[in-house]
Amino acid sequence: MSRILPHPLLSAGLGLTWLLLNAPPTPGNVLLAILVALIVPTVMRALRPRPVRVRAPGTLARLIVIVLYDMVRSNIDVARIILGLRRGERRTGFVSIPLDLREPLGLAILSIILTGTPGTLWVQYDSDTGRLLLHVLDDTGGDKWVRRVKDRYERPLMEIFP
């Protein structure tokens, strides 16, 4: 059974998602859902991802709270900018941030945090130099964004994924 369904929950989720996205269920859609549910997890098994070990669950919980807070605050800030409540104050720009984090999973989570937060976008990462190019909707200049990313997100991620 594990050879046919290496990840049964992933298979079920993919199949159901396929059917939900392609409603109403027709015989063809059901067949495609079954094929996707069987093929994708098998292909993913070939990638053999490393097991994830979270070393600081308390830091992870704290990071989740910080990210949720920052997302709510950013939503409000972006809404003010879009609605014109902060006229003349918006300065979009690019910020180059030197990262010490090299763990691929930590970098992936950092990219999700930064891109998922309204007003910021992960543009480019140079793995040779460790520099991140970030686009921000409200560029305050100076090192404010560098310190924010390094202190609020990178340091906790380095504790969680050393």
Descriptive notes:
- With 162 residues, the protein is mainly alpha-helical.
- It folds into two domains: 8-47; 57-160, no CATH class.
- The protein has five helices and three strands.
- It has helices at residues 8-21, 27-45, 57-82, 104-116, 144-160; strands at 93-98, 120-126, 131-136.
- Strands 1-3-2 form a three-stranded antiparallel sheet.
- Helix 3 packs antiparallel against helix 5 (144-160).
- The chain is globular and about 55 Å long.
- It comes from Methylobacterium soli.
- It is a multi-pass membrane protein.
Helix content: 40-55%
Q: Low-confidence spans: pLDDT under 50, at least 5 residues?
A: none
Instruction: Tell me the number of strands.
Output: 3
Tell me what portion of residues adopts beta-strand conformation. Answer: 5-15%
The major sheet is characterized as:
3 strands, antiparallel
Mean pLDDT: 86
N-to-C span: 35 Å
Number of domains: 2
Structural class: mainly alpha
Tally of contiguous helical segments: 5
Helix-strand pattern: HHHEHEEH
